[in-house]
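Input (structure):
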């Protein structure tokens, strides 16, 4: 060999195999996957708090508790009328689709039919002189024709049971809801909007933050909507958020605090928040016919 070192393979002493690994003794690399975080929701007193200190269930409870309190403040607000009168859907196809959804054990909570027709356009530039009217037309996607027969708490707990998410997803959903319902007043938080808004916010948050995502069909079934309706809700949410989905730890912490604060402060002025929403489209002007 090089450097004048001789090697005799025949006289080499065989080495014994290493001992078997012991994960419990390797404290530097062992991760305890059963170290659960608290499931109790936090009542925040400041924008600065540790978002890593809670579990996904705790974050979900903070989300629906704040939204349900906000619903009590807002009251009921009717949606804007449709931009156009679409054709009547095929009722037989709709009935068969509903039966297929209810045949699944996960799909026990249908949130009913939406106000907006599937073919109703999102763009209303020909009738929209400003962005507020455009947003009002898009907000129709989140209105249900009737109030669901179950609470938002029951709805989201069942969603978490069959499609659980990380705390960051629920905190990001709270951030989106605060922007639309409180900061920018684009979608009112009412008994007829909050289920669809929460579902769309959680779904968009999941797609924005998570690598592993639940299948669209499963989320739609558990959420009590069709796959097509869920797609429409996501698109509507993205338009209203202006596709600004970037969040960080500071944003997640502060928006959840602000959502809770809006719900707490609004209790003292119940019913006044709804007066700030003006969901009306401008009247269509008749075109003057040329004189003969």
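Output (sequence):
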């Amino acid at each position: 060999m090089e450097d004048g070192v001789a090697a005799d393979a025949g006289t080499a002493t065989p080495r014994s195999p290493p001992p078997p690994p012991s994960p419990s003794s390797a404290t530097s690399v062992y991760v305890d996957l059963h170290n659960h975080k608290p499931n109790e929701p936090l009542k925040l007193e400041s924008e600065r708090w540790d978002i890593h200190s809670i579990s996904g269930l705790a974050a979900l409870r903070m989300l629906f508790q704040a939204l349900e309190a906000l619903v009590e403040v807002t009251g009921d607000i009717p949606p804007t009328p449709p931009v156009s009168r679409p054709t009547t859907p095929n009722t037989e196809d709709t009935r068969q689709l509903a039966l297929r959804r209810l045949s699944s054990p996960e799909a026990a909570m249908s949130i009913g039919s939406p106000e907006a027709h599937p073919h109703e356009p999102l763009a209303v530039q020909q009738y929209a002189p400003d962005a507020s009217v455009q947003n009002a037309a898009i907000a129709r996607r989140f209105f249900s024709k009737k109030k669901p027969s179950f609470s938002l708490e029951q709805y989201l707990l069942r969603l978490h049971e069959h499609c659980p998410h990380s705390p960051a997803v629920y905190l990001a959903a709270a951030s989106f809801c605060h922007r639309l319902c409180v900061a920018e007043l684009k979608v009112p938080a009412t008994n007829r909007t909050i289920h669809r808004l929460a579902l769309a916010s959680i779904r968009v948050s999941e797609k924005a933050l998570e690598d592993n995502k639940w299948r669209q069909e499963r989320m739609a079934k558990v959420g009590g909507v069709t796959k097509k309706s869920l797609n429409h809700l996501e698109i509507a949410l993205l338009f209203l958020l202006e596709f600004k989905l970037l969040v960080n730890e500071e944003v997640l912490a502060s928006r959840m605090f602000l959502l809770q604060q809006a719900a707490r402060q609004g209790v003292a002025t119940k019913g006044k928040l709804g007066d700030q929403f003006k969901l009306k489209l401008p009247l269509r002007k008749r075109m003057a016919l040329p004189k003969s």
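Notes: DSSP finds nine helices and no strands in the chain. The radius of gyration is 26 Å.
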